[in-house]
Amino acid sequence: MGFTRRLLAVGATVALSWNTPASSGSDLFEAAMPLHRFELQLDENPLDSLRRAPRTEVPARVRVDGRPPMRLGLHLKGGTGSFRPIDDRPSLTLSTSDRFGSERLLGTTKLHLNNGVEDPSRWREILGRQLLGELGLQTPSATHARVVLNGRDLGLYVLIEGFTPDWLERTFPGTGGTLFEPMAGTNAPARFRRITAHGRSSPARLPRAFLAAPSVPAKDRWSSTASCINESALIDFIAAEVLLAHADGYSLAHNNFRLWAPSDGSGLRWIPHGLDRLFGAADLPWPPHMAGPMAEAVMTRPEGGAEVFHRIQSFRTRVSDPATVKTHLERRMERLRPHLSRTEWAEVRDGTDLLMAQWKRRWEGVERQRRAAEPLSMPLGAESLLAGWSPDPAPGNAVLSEVKTPDGGTRLRILATDTSLVGWTWTGTLPPGRYRFEARVRLADFAPLPLGEAGGVFVQKTGHPTQEWLRSESLTENPLRLEFTVESASTPTRLRIAFRGRRGVVEVDTKHITLSRTS
């Protein structure tokens, strides 16, 4: 089922039910309404308890969408950036229990209400789960909710289904197992706690080899751990996180993930979690730095890195493009709009605009990386024009643009109005050999750095100190040449045209940016 059909199949909500038919899962995410309404009532003793110990569960009365109230357990959630106390605008977890009442909360037993502090759009969790579902990665559902606590309107929240035995059974039918989460502040060596399980013979603990992996050198880590990991699923997971630029996920930040340990011995599987900073690394380079120990182990192996790259490019052909996503988000936004205050609407609209701009940048960046991976044919002595230059993420004191010339060509332009180091980069795959890179540049309105420091325009192969400079103002084209060697085609080559100075205007004619192979 494509993005359009899945998105419209749930009426006015954006529900994520691609894993199983809707009738087998929680009905909380199937209601035909723009957002759910949660009215929470806490007595004074539970309120005081949450002020002293916010992570300790207390009883609460909860009315959802005007239905009869239920008695549930409630505690506060959130990390360093998103946590807010009970008297502010807290993120919450609601759950059924024998202690506080065993009623199911509209088809499920655990829900999270996220305050959106780290995502003003309130769409990243919802959209991210939709896109991950298109790629075949299992995640719980998400939609919107309005939260009222003791009569105080807390505003628009993101409602997320919890990891429950029901969810595990729907997601991994016929396979028992245990779900683990990392404990805070335990990066090396990591410690995990068992959060839920289903089926017989569910593992009580994670494999020793996996737990010891962070202490093993990255180059040896895969061989010592591979036997207890589902390799294909891990590569899918890494590729999805990198494609969607999950800045706070396992691969890039060693954060926000769960581990599924199946009882059939098919190997550990990673499950995405905490998606409110999805698309946050829109300009992620290739290869990116890996923070998760097993993601690093995969990428350290040349064949592993290549497989992740190919999986990313394959995923890009399967996931909804920015234009499609934008169209459907705009429709959802219009249905949500009557239920928001003017202030809420402005915040959500501005946040959504930023989200879509980041997804578009990420989409285009992955395409540039695909083109860069295609080997450039460079016969000895031949000269080629270098196209496909990418601007740096522009700082506030510089503007990078590609401008048309009267003869139909283009120029790369840098306008720096204050102290800047900024430029354009070309990335490509070159066969081993010796090369000459040349660009013709103009520099106007130039002011060097203070205290007599060098400045001007330079060309460089990134990662190498050698560079050629134009250090003074010149309104005519000046050739800057750089010779360099490529040792291996397995490592991308990055060439750079950049400005360093207090002020200046740089123009580079793209018809005169060339590369030739000299040996």
Overview of the molecule:
The chain is an alpha+beta fold. It has 3 domains: 163 residues, no CATH class; 147 residues, no CATH class; 135 residues, Galactose-binding domain-like (Jelly Rolls, Sandwich). It is built from 12 helices and 22 strands. It has a 7-stranded mixed β-barrel. β10 and β11 form a beta hairpin. α6 crosses α9, α7 crosses α10 and α11 packs antiparallel against α12. The longest helix has 32 residues. It is globular and about 80 Å long.
Determine the fraction of residues in helical runs and give it as a percent range. Answer: 25-40%
- Please work out how many helical segments DSSP would assign: 12
Number of domains: 3
Shape: globular
Largest sheet: 7 strands, mixed, barrel
Mean pLDDT: 87
What is the spatial order of strands in the main beta sheet?
1-2-3-4-5-7-6
Unreliable segments (pLDDT under 50, ≥5 consecutive)? 1-27
Q: Note the gap between the termini.
A: 53 Å
The radius of gyration over CA amounts to 27 Å
- Beta-strand content estimate: 25-35%
**What class would the helix/strand composition place it in?**
alpha+beta
Secondary structure: number of strands: 22
Oligomer: single chain
